[in-house]
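Troubleshooting: if your tokenizer reports a length mismatch, compare your output against this known-good record of 199 residues.
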Amino acid sequence: MSKGYSHSHFILHKPYGYLSQFINNQNRRKNKRLLGELYDFQKSTMAIGRLDETSEGLLFLTSDGEMSEYIRSRNVEKEYYVQVDGIITNEAIIKLQKGVEIGFNGQKYTTKPCKVHLVNSVSHLPLENRKVRDERHGPKSWASITVTEGKFRQVRKMTAAVGFPTLRLVRVRIGDIHLTIRSGEVIEVEAFLNNLQQK
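Known-good structure output:
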């Protein structure tokens, strides 16, 4: 990491409906909620590995560019809990584990092998009790997907590719750091993730 400079680091549980940015520079996103509404971040703070507006969960923020590059690299696992439309099958899980074809920048892309398993309960997570769909429209299920890459909307595209569209997406882990704080909470930390770099 950068030496000789004082940097600020934060862990945030991004709520649903927020953009992972501090400045809204697009007119079509007028009146969107931004991260700066959650905490008084210093001016040079940046989000590491953005979550889109409809996604939730663990987000790191830092003023250290080298830290940002490292966390976004393939050296650091990112785990997501996805609630999907329907009861995800073992066949679909195996396909996801091996890699599936998705669209990226107008081209076909095959995702790298990853870790996937069924999740029986999310009661241990500090999630908002948010309804994503009426129960009359059929069953839902949760799965864990752990990746080391991060193409645009990759996890959502992956579940759709195996026939189980994502209804809700929550990032629950980055490296060894787990989601333990409530939605909207921000914690400032010192020299966070040093343990990741030592691996």
